[in-house]
Amino acid sequence: MSMWVGYIILIVLIGICAISLWAVWKLMHPARKPVLLTPDEEGLEYESITFRSRDQAVNLKGWFLPAAGSPKMTIIFAHGYRSNRLQNKVAALGLAKALVQRNYNVVMFDFRNCGNSEGRLTTIGLDEQQDILGAVDWCTTFCKGRIGLIGYSMGAAASLLAAAKCEEVSGVIADSPFSDLNRYLLDNLSIWSKLPKYPFSPLMVLAIRFIMKKNPQLVKPIVSIQQIYPRPVMFIHGDQDETIPCADSEMMSQRFADAFSYWKVPGAKHTGSYKLFPVEYTNRVDHFFDRLAGGHR
Question: Which residue ranges run through the membrane (predicted)?
Answer without folding.
Answer: 6-25
